[in-house]
Amino acid sequence: MSGSKNAILFIALLFSSPILLKAQNSANIGIAAELGLPSGNFSGMSGIGLGASVKADLPVAENFALTLNVGFMNFFGRRNQLFNVQDLTYIPAKAGLKYQLGESFYAEGQLGAALSLNNGQKTLFVWSPGIGNQFKLSGENKLDLGIRYEAWTGKNEFSDLNKTNTKGFVGIRFAYVFGL
Three-state DSSP class for 75? Predict the structure, then answer.
């Protein structure tokens, strides 16, 4: 079987897995505001990041869900008398697994790519572990508060200012989740 046929088969299984496994939970979609607090060497380039995202949770077993997440994130560049770092704007796209640790508390891990909207910047590899809690609202809707460490790894144009190839930050996510 060729590589492209394997990829198509994998994607088909991935999207049909909630049906195949007869998951007991329901799917949902959340719309969120995001705050990014740079850490390590990245804090020398940016003081804060702001963004928005959309995340879908697709149940695959009683306590497991597949997550698909896409967003927009802008880190505001630092400016002083010595240097002027441009804003860094990316579209992070991630997929991962979410595990319900309790009725409303969860842990998740995601992998993906951060697509740059800046000239001269490259697409970066993303990895992100996190935890969160969902608070029930009316019907199937919920308020989701999550915190994660997220790292974007790859070569960048600012090697003189940032000696590492990783932009790491603590992400805080406030989401309104619609039950489907």
Answer: strand
Contacts of 87 (CB under 8 A, 6+ apart): 74, 75, 76, 77, 118
What pLDDT, on a 0 to 100 scale, did the predictor assign at position 18?
42
- pTM beyond 0.85: the answer is no
**For residues 86 and 142, what is the distance between their CA atoms, to the nearest angstrom?**
37
Residue appearing with tokens 């919920």: 142
Residue with tokens 């969902």: 134
Share of the chain above pLDDT 70, in %: 80
Whether residue 134 contacts residue 143, with contact meaning beta carbons closer than 8 Å, is answered with: yes
Structure tokens at 100: 């319900």
Q: Are 136 and 176 in contact (CB under 8 A)?
A: no
**At 74, which helix (H) or strand (E)?**
strand 64-77
pLDDT tier at 39, thresholds 50, 70, 90: very high
